[in-house]
Amino acid sequence: MIISDLNKCQPIIGSEGTKIKQIFHPHNTMLGIGYSVSQCTVGPGKRSKPHKLKSSEIYFILKGHGVLHIDDESSDITENQAAYIPPSSRQFIENTGDADLEFLCIVEPAWKQEDEIIE
């Protein structure tokens, strides 16, 4: 059994501009998983950089609210909502609230730097 403690995950700043705490990824677990799970944070009034990823993603909003942009579509998104982001879609999320926007990012197959294009 592997248990990951979010409080012990060291945050990094992703190339798209979000603060990321990597919870599970194939390189940090011996379970042979093929996906990755991270908690991401975007500060008030901030947004991630437009980017594309070869993998599909699901964003599950934990706290706050914002606007999610996928290709030519934009939608408000808030706590307890989830969104599917198809592979190779141009995407970014912006925080329209006055507190941090926190969300889980599930990537399948697992995120790899070489699979991400920052625009």
- Biggest pleated sheet: 6 strands, antiparallel
> Low-confidence segments, ≥5 residues, pLDDT <50?
none
Total tally of structural domains:
1
**Through-space gap between termini:** 39 Å
Element pattern in H and E:
EEEEEEEEEEE
Kindly state the number of beta strands: 11
Q: Total number of helical segments?
A: 0
Topology (elements, then pairings):
Elements: E1 12-13, E2 19-24, E3 36-42, E4 51-53, E5 56-63, E6 65-70, E7 73-78, E8 82-85, E9 91-95, E10 101-108, E11 116-118
Antiparallel strand pairs: 1-2, 2-3, 3-10, 4-11, 5-8, 5-10, 6-7, 6-9
List keywords for this structure.
119 residues; mainly beta; Jelly Rolls; 6-stranded antiparallel sheet
What's the short story on this structure?
With 119 residues, the protein is an all-beta fold. 0% of the residues lie in helices and 49% in strands.
